[in-house]
């Protein structure tokens, strides 16, 4: 295992300490329990947006804490759900009196712990709503989920609901918006290589030199099928087709096209995939009016990519364009 | 070779086409010769800032084209200098009447071609100045250079001179500023793994499973020494010590600390390195007043990192903080 770490047990703590030291202008970090909170939280009268999940997907979620996006993130151990006490602590820290929205990627452990946290928060008189993101069309019921997995769309949901919260939309409104994003977006990913969890010390799975995994999960969970290596254009087709058909898009629809890197794939290659994905979208009559390309929700050092399409409305587009100031996404401010 | 590409010959062109499609709001891309130009270039009365080099280091340089940073970038083939005709075309495109600054990483091919381009541009009556970045303390004279290599400091030089050009500083002033940045900054890198140039098809060098290369170049050029794998804290010390001693920093100095990812190393690990580097800086009495962490100048999918320190002045700090709107770096706007 070749990694820039000290002891595997210290990876998340030491990484958080580095993150805190580098970004004290944007976030406050607590270590026990581990939370990353927007530096000026709680913002009075604003819905607090909270997410979290296992570490190893950076910049998600901690890199998206700040004005216009998340109010707090709860980092678990690598590929492991955060605990209810982390979530409760973060909920208290971001409650500005207008309630708190939990954005939960659909994994069994995350769901269970966020549900416990929301019970505890409600006991303290904090209004909480939860929205589950389950955008991955690759598989139903997987290793860690009942139903579809939550993947790339989470990034877009965090950006869009974060902008709505800045406009002082109410908790029911922000929750409904998040459900709308989840209904209008789909994703699918693939991997060229595996990834290694530090305390495991060996790759999550074995992938022969001449094969790739189509429909991979962000924890290296199996996808739809293993196939022989194929050119980037064929990969783009294999991901775009299921995403488009599941979404039921119509010619003339505006879409946001998001090509995400899994961690180990250079930007050069992501743009080659984007090129073909945009061409396929155009061929199907879709108008790609917004785009995002880069490693935003990763699987440690895995090589591969995912494609997310989000059907846009004028409201969603304006919220996407709204100012954001986080480590991983920043514009307009 | 596992890469998301089509034919190796098409990598740079197809990637550029994808980049152009995704970022038409920020850049204009020409294909023959290949240039990436700020969408509103030329800006009348502003010094044009131009850089370029081999592809494979993304987001450098094309990702840094836009308001407050580069006016244009010339992408060569992978790890290969761009040609004088690319540079001349880009020079014409960004000449707003106040002249053009070339920021050149110190590699023999880049120097030669930028020199030819500046001769051609001057023949057309365009004022051109060149500044060479040679910040890598790892080696003197390397595989591709006479003298030190130009590496991570290039990112900081492009940001700072770009901001100065926005303020309408003159060509001699912006060139002097760029030389100041080069004098006040140093870098050193390391690799855990090699990288593979698509048309070569095999790794640039072999690195055994239990070894790492200290002082690596951004093209996989040999560094100072091969050593057994060591913890991230020891790596941070091996990079910080030569950088600090070469710079001759004094206790109380303000510095920008930049921990750069080589491409294949997750953010989690970069923050572990940042944590220790910041601690070492503090122990030496340095004040880390600005920071940057992430993959900004990469070597394809190489795993590893580099550390850059830049001694700050009030002027440099203000220019660093100034608004920037590019694909790879964006704030304040």
Structure overview:
Two copies of one chain form a homodimer. Chain A is of the alpha/beta class and 333 residues long. Chain A has two domains: 8-183, Dihydroxyacetone kinase, domain 1 (Rossmann fold); 185-313, Dihydroxyacetone kinase, domain 2 (Hypothetical Protein Tm841, Chain: A,domain 3), CATH 3.30.1180. Helix content of chain A is 32%, strand content 24%. Chain A is built from eight helices and 14 strands. In chain A, the strands form three sheets. A six-stranded mixed sheet of chain A has the order 1-2-4-3-5-6, with helices on both faces. A six-stranded mixed sheet of chain A has the order 9-8-7-12-10-11. In chain A, strand 1 (27-31) and strand 2 (34-38) form a beta hairpin. In chain A, helix 2 packs across helix 3 (108-123), helix 4 runs antiparallel to helix 5 and helix 6 packs across helix 7 (267-283). The longest helix of chain A has 17 residues, at 267-283. The first copy, chain A, is globular and about 55 Å long. The mean pLDDT of chain A is 97. At the A-B interface, helix 1, helix 6, helix 7, strand 11 and strand 14 of A face helix 1, helix 6, helix 7, strand 11 and strand 14 of B.
Entry summary:
The structure is a homodimer of 333-residue chains. The first copy, chain A, has 333 residues and is of the alpha/beta class. Chain A has 8 helices and 14 strands.
Show the helix and strand layout.
2 copies of one chain form a homodimer.
Chain A: H1 11-22, E1 27-31, E2 34-38, E3 48-55, E4 72-78, H2 84-94, E5 100-105, H3 108-123, E6 128-133, H4 153-166, H5 171-184, E7 185-191, E8 211-214, E9 225-228, H6 232-247, E10 254-261, H7 267-283, E11 287-294, E12 304-311, H8 314-321, E13 324-325, E14 330-331
């Amino acid at each position: 295992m070749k990694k820039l770490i000290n002891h595997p047990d210290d990876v998340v703590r030491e990484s958080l300490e580095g993150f805190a030291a580098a970004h004290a202008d944007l976030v406050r970090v607590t270590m026990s329990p581990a939370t990353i909170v927007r530096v000026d939280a709680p913002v009075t009268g604003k819905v607090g947006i909270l997410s979290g999940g296992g570490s190893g997907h950076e910049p998600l979620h901690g890199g998206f804490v700040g004005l216009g996006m998340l109010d707090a993130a709860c980092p678990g151990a690598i590929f492991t759900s955060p605990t209810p006490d982390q979530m409760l602590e973060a909920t208290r820290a971001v409650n500005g009196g207008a309630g708190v929205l939990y954005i939960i990627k659909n994994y069994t452990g995350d769901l269970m712990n966020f549900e416990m946290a929301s019970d505890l928060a409600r006991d303290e008189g904090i209004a909480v709503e939860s929205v589950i993101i389950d955008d991955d069309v690759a598989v139903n019921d997987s290793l860690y989920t009942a139903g579809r997995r939550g993947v790339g769309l989470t990034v877009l949901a965090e950006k869009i609901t974060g902008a709505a919260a800045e406009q002082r939309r109410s908790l029911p409104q922000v929750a409904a918006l998040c459900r709308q994003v989840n209904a209008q977006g789909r994703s699918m990913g693939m991997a060229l290589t595996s990834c290694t969890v530090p305390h495991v010390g060996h790759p999550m799975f074995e992938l022969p030199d001449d094969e790739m995994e189509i429909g991979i999960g962000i924890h290296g969970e199996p996808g739809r099928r293993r196939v022989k290596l194929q050119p980037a254009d064929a990969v783009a087709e294999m991901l775009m087709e299921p995403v488009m058909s599941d979404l039921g898009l119509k010619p003339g629809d505006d879409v946001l096209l998001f090509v995400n890197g899994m961690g180990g794939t250079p930007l050069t290659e992501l743009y080659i995939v984007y090129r073909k994905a945009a061409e396929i979208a155009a061929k199907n009559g879709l108008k790609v009016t917004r785009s995002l390309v880069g490693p935003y929700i990763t699987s440690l050092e895995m090589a591969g990519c995912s494609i997310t399409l989000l059907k846009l409305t004028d409201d969603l587009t304006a919220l996407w364009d709204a100012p954001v100031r986080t480590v991983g996404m920043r514009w307009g401010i």
